[in-house]
Amino acid sequence: MHDGSLATLEEVVDHYDRGGLGHFSTDPQIDELGLSPDEKADLVAFLRSLTDPAFLDDPRYRP
Fold this sequence. Notes:
By secondary structure, the chain is mainly alpha-helical. It has 3 helices and no strands.
């Protein structure tokens, strides 16, 4: 997660599926998603498909 509190993409999906942390600044319209295990797996697979290994391995884009 952006703040390092969650180590894996699966943990992030679970976090948002539960509606987040309920922080005081969280919009009250945000609620649990109620995803099934299959839906969570599909979401994780989709998000992973967005990674471009050719870009990540290209030395032109390394710091």
